[in-house]
Amino acid sequence: LERTATADCTLGDTGIKIHKGMVIIIPTYALHNDPKLFEDPEKFDPDRFLPEERAKRDPYSYIPFGDGPRYCLGMKYALMQVKVCIVCVVANFKILRCPETKVM
């Protein structure tokens, strides 16, 4: 993500100054794979996106489509495509639970 500062500001209590016109780049891959924000970030763990887990961290720690007035216009389309894909898989295949799968 790339944005241009519209005013001078200082980041919180860090003392880092951002001047008007300065280009700010947010490295989303690094953000989404930061072990300070996500325990074992390389592990596939859908539970980290459960509401109770999301409430534990900063809402801007995971921004796959950006945020604010310039977020990705394709976000709703992409999320709908994922839902359609899941429906197609469920409708066309028999899905069985593996014996090792724990049922809660």
UniProtKB/TrEMBL annotation:
<dbReference type="InterPro" id="IPR002403">
    <property type="entry name" value="Cyt_P450_E_grp-IV"/>
</dbReference>
<dbReference type="GO" id="GO:0016705">
    <property type="term" value="F:oxidoreductase activity, acting on paired donors, with incorporation or reduction of molecular oxygen"/>
</dbReference>
<feature type="binding site" description="axial binding residue">
    <location>
        <position position="72"/>
    </location>
    <ligand>
        <name>heme</name>
    </ligand>
</feature>
<dbReference type="GO" id="GO:0005789">
    <property type="term" value="C:endoplasmic reticulum membrane"/>
</dbReference>
<keyword id="KW-0256">Endoplasmic reticulum</keyword>
<dbReference type="InterPro" id="IPR036396">
    <property type="entry name" value="Cyt_P450_sf"/>
</dbReference>
<dbReference type="GO" id="GO:0004497">
    <property type="term" value="F:monooxygenase activity"/>
</dbReference>
<dbReference type="InterPro" id="IPR017972">
    <property type="entry name" value="Cyt_P450_CS"/>
</dbReference>
<dbReference type="GO" id="GO:0020037">
    <property type="term" value="F:heme binding"/>
</dbReference>
<keyword id="KW-0349">Heme</keyword>
<comment type="function">
    <text>May be involved in the metabolism of insect hormones and in the breakdown of synthetic insecticides.</text>
</comment>
<keyword id="KW-0492">Microsome</keyword>
<dbReference type="GO" id="GO:0005506">
    <property type="term" value="F:iron ion binding"/>
</dbReference>
<keyword id="KW-0472">Membrane</keyword>
<protein>
    <submittedName>
        <fullName>Cytochrome P450 3A11</fullName>
    </submittedName>
</protein>
<keyword id="KW-0560">Oxidoreductase</keyword>
<comment type="similarity">
    <text>Belongs to the cytochrome P450 family.</text>
</comment>
<dbReference type="InterPro" id="IPR050476">
    <property type="entry name" value="Insect_CytP450_Detox"/>
</dbReference>
<dbReference type="Pfam" id="PF00067">
    <property type="entry name" value="p450"/>
</dbReference>
<dbReference type="InterPro" id="IPR001128">
    <property type="entry name" value="Cyt_P450"/>
</dbReference>
<keyword id="KW-0479">Metal-binding</keyword>
<keyword id="KW-0503">Monooxygenase</keyword>
<keyword id="KW-0408">Iron</keyword>
